[in-house]
Amino acid sequence: MAAGCFRRIGLALFLTGAGVALAGPAASGAERPQPAQACSEAGRWLAFDGKRLLGVPAGGVLADAAANEVVLIGEQHDVEDHHRWQLQVLAALHAQRPDLVIGFEMFPRRVQPVLDRWVSGQLSLQDFFAQAEWEKVWNFPPQLYLPLFEFARINRIPMVALNVDQKLIRAISEKGGQAVPVAERDGVGRAASPPAAYREFLREMHLAHLAGRNQAPGRQGSFENFLDAQLTWDRAMAEALARRVAPAGSPQRPLVVGIMGSGHIRFGHGVAHQLRDLGVTRVASLLPASTKEECRSLQPGLASAFFLLPEKPQPAPEPPRLGVTLEEGEKGEMGVRIAQVSAGSLAEKSGLLAADRIVEMAGRPVTGTAEVLAAVRRQPPGTWLPLKVARKDAQLEILVRFPARP
Hints:
Layout: E1 5-7, H1 13-16, E2 44-49, E3 52-56, H2 58-66, E4 70-73, H3 80-96, E5 100-108, H4 112-119, H5 125-131, H6 134-137, H7 142-154, E6 159-163, H8 166-175, H9 196-212, H10 220-242, E7 255-259, H11 271-277, E8 283-289, H12 292-296, E9 305-308, E10 324-328, E11 336-341, H13 346-350, E12 357-361, E13 364-365, H14 369-378, E14 384-391, E15 394-401
Helix pairs in contact: 2-3, 3-7, 8-10, 9-10, 10-11
């Protein structure tokens, strides 16, 4: 994320996207196992036998997963191979359970009719992304997810919008869950209390978030609001998945799959915990491991099974990126607010700061994050991009110099 220019998805994008280690503190405090040779061969499934990490047959992993009510499939949002692996898993599960439903973290509930029209073949690809407001609601490159969406369309598999609007997450993070009226919660119920280990994990993420914004830890309430926001996010996705789980004894019981960031899945603390509170107890979780180093950090209980992806050569340099996290301004506020500036980024070198508001780019007013992202993507290497920035009560002219292509 440090090299990117992404709109902030709610308050805790970094929990579910780039840069989140799969492991972290173990839920039980158990000694970390030694994976030995399990991490030496990519392209295989792994699972724990007690404290030992072993290679396991793909057929057994997928059959076990398909026997559940819900399967949660994790990702790091900006890793292309994670999405290719997800497609592979979806195809295998669909072969065993053709009555499949796929939920996506990427979409808020309000765009559900758009997903329905896409699956039924009523929308072109361009219309689908436009009506789903992709640049506003998610904004990671759509080509990463397109194979998953096409798979659902081709096979007429229902797609479910799992998320809520960022304004709800922002409101809870600023005021706390109790201060947001029920009528403004997008129908999301009160979340179950988190496991202690999840609470501590989120506390660490909160401190990292504050450090990224050059803020000192505030009073206890600020963390509690952060916690409320994350739990609301987990609860919203769990509720959307649970609604698609048929009651026991129903003649048709679809397998419900959730596609989401790995931070919502690890150790069964996030969405799975909320599903259990909703009465859905048969839940499997599958996570990718991108490197041997990441594989060696895996711990028992982190997920039902893991897939070790082959490591890829370093990609060619990406197009110029600004290195900021953005969020929409408040109602009536000019421009787009910078929530975070990545250390060492082009934005930092240019003098941009967290809490600045970009009000103009190249002399044109900025009204939304999509405009900023599009302008940065279009900017050729070796050119300059003039910005007008509002900082407190002053307006500054800042010139961003994009480096020449190597």
